[in-house]
Amino acid sequence: MQKVEEHWVCGGLQQVWRHESNTLNCAMQFAVFVPPQASQAPCPVLYWLSGLTCNEQNFITKAGAQRYAAEHGVVLVAPDTSPRGEGVADDAAWDLGQGAGFYLNATESPWKPHYQMYDYVLNELHALVLASFPVVDKRSVFGHSMGGHGALVLALRNPQAFCSVSAFAPIVAPTQVPWGEKAFSAYLGEDRAAWQQYDAVALINSGHRVKDLLVDQGLGDNFYEEQLKTGLLKTACEQQNLPHTIRLQGGYDHSYYFISTFVGEHIAWHAKHLCQ
């Protein structure tokens, strides 16, 4: 691994690292905030998954999350949102290709050789974090929009791996909205049955469970009605008796202003689960 940058903040260290990924077949960058408590004892890990067009920088520079991670003694890890590089397949549109990996394992050409973000976050990145930083093997996951989709899917499919899950404005049912239909058609092909494994609502309805989930959705979000459809998640949780807290926040949009307002509550919520 190569250290790309390092900054002191809130008594801890904000770093960005670069490494060669065997899963994605390209070089990848990820951000790590190491809180001050880690100098005394290893800390649990909270993974953040960002949304469309983002990389590892958006969360660490806009969310103000380091203050809360330092308060609760949690290591924050924020990977990039897709494989990157000249040899990596891409698309001219902003919602497909580089910056839009959708946290799945692609099965179709030309995406399959690199777009394996599900396996990367679940396995390779976590193994690297465990081997390289002062952490214990306890992790939770949260994210925004496309990253909220990724967080929910990872936790629902791997409840033994993640202590808790939360999301800001997640794409809860990508098989039913334009963003997901476009991405899944490209990455996974036209067999919609193969899409279900990456749809949080479909997973809940088919019996996948987590102990609890927390979701915040802004009512001023331009994508709320067409792309996010938070009500589908609420209905699925109610029908399957899955514990949930889904909060509709008046006025808030899809931006990091929204995330920065509630990120402290999310980190505190995860800290409770991680410290049990």
TrEMBL record:
GO term, biological process aspect, one: formaldehyde catabolic process
UniProt entry keywords in alphabetical sequence: Hydrolase, Serine esterase
EC number from the UniProt entry: 3.1.2.12
Residues the record marks as active site: S145 (charge relay system), D221 (charge relay system), H254 (charge relay system)
Keyword Hydrolase: yes
GO molecular function: carboxylic ester hydrolase activity; S-formylglutathione hydrolase activity
InterPro entries: AB_hydrolase_fold, Esterase-like, S-formylglutathione_hydrol
Catalysed reactions, as listed in the record: S-formylglutathione + H2O = formate + glutathione + H(+)
A Gene Ontology cellular-component term: cytosol
Pfam families assigned: Esterase (PF00756)
Superkingdom assignment: Bacteria
Family: Belongs to the esterase D family.
Entry function: Serine hydrolase involved in the detoxification of formaldehyde.
Protein name: S-formylglutathione hydrolase
